[in-house]
Design goal:
Blueprint lengths: L2 E3 L4 E4 L2 E4 L8 H4 L10 H9 L10 H21 L2 H14 L7
Antiparallel strand pairs: 1-2, 2-3
Helix pairs in contact: 2-3
Length: 104
């Protein structure tokens, strides 16, 4: 079975579109954002939190969806451990100090 999760809230399974109501969509960009602060790209979050480079040569919606799911699971884990806010603050500190450049 081919499964793709798109940002627009449409899930495609074997070329059949399924609508997902907005209230059921969890956006990692919003989860990993401090109030009144810049949004952090999926690529940046992946590199710093999952230690994985994505979107290197081409952009893949499947890779983005899989990465988003991993980031969501990490969010739930960090929340359970009580370390999510500290982790997010650290990401913003690193980002500001490096002008949001990704390490090589």
């Amino acid at each position: 079975m081919i499964l793709k999760l798109l940002v627009s809230g449409i899930i495609v399974i074997n070329n059949i579109d399924i609508f997902v109501p907005k209230e059921q969509i969890i956006d990692t960009v919003e989860i990993y954002q401090l109030p009144r602060q810049r949004k952090i790209s999926l690529r940046y979050l992946s590199k710093h939190l999952l230690h994985k480079d994505i979107q290197q040569e081409t952009h893949s919606s499947e890779e983005d969806a899989a990465t988003s799911l991993k980031l969501y699971h990490l969010y739930k884990k960090l929340e359970k451990e009580g370390t999510f806010e500290e982790t997010l603050e650290n990401i913003y500190t690193i980002g500001r100090n490096t002008n949001w450049a990704l390490p090589e």
